[in-house]
Amino acid sequence: MQINDSIEGLELVYQRPATLTDTPFHYCPGCGHGVAHKLLMEVVEEMGIQENTIGVAPVGCSVFAYHYMNIDMQEAAHGRASAVATGIKRVLPDKFVFSYQGDGDLAAIGTAETIHTVNRGENILIVFINNGIYGMTGGQMAPTTLIGQITSTSPYGRDEKLIGYPLKITDMIAILPGAFYVTRQSVNTAGNVRKLKKAFQKSFEFQKLNKGTCFIEVVSNCPSGWGMTPVEANKWMEENMFPYYPLGDLKVPRTEKEKGSNNA
What we know:
Elements: H1 33-47, E1 53-57, H2 65-68, E2 72-75, H3 81-91, E3 96-102, H4 103-109, H5 111-119, E4 125-130, E5 133-134, E6 140-141, H6 160-163, H7 169-174, E7 179-186, H8 190-207, E8 213-219, H9 223-226, H10 230-244, E9 248-251, H11 256-263
Parallel strand pairs: 1-2, 1-3, 3-4, 4-8, 7-8
Antiparallel strand pairs: 5-6, 7-9
Helix pairs in contact: 1-8, 4-5
């Protein structure tokens, strides 16, 4: 429901962007997906690129993104979103193309597609939601699950001797020459929400330059999968996820002005 900004004496502080449909989110209370959706579509609206933006969503909690994002959307098989986005961008190079993927999708079955997409420097944005678990299919352990973290398939906690260590996929992406802009953000506070929105904006602006792949990790929570309230999940994320997946930029392109000043 939109707030009527014509009522005298009231100040409009928020309204649903036109780039989001009037469809209630199916996400669990406290989940970060809804905020990420909202920010992404706010940027699309504010940049005036709604008619020129194409999103790709694979299997996972974000599988119904096409119900919410009022833009051209394409469904992809599990883990194949970056490959599908590659094809779309190559056929329609003037469009703004992004994939929206979870950790079970991007960092597990889609690892190969992700690495090779970035290594080729495909001119797309990859949005990576990392909540350390398979959220949609029953709370199983994911490649990003922390050591000792309890899931439905690791009831005694993840054991690195049996399963290996949590995969820092974004750190791996950042060292690839095809990666142009790589950052890790979250939506747990108002300040971090603003930073993520800025990262989305930068990524679409960078896509105009045709310099390579933009990759944004969003460290998120999964209250249902973690068996916590939203407040407990945010606290656990801050105390456990952030130390292992620290927020901030991992790779930022240097502007021509900066290059010139360094050469002076």
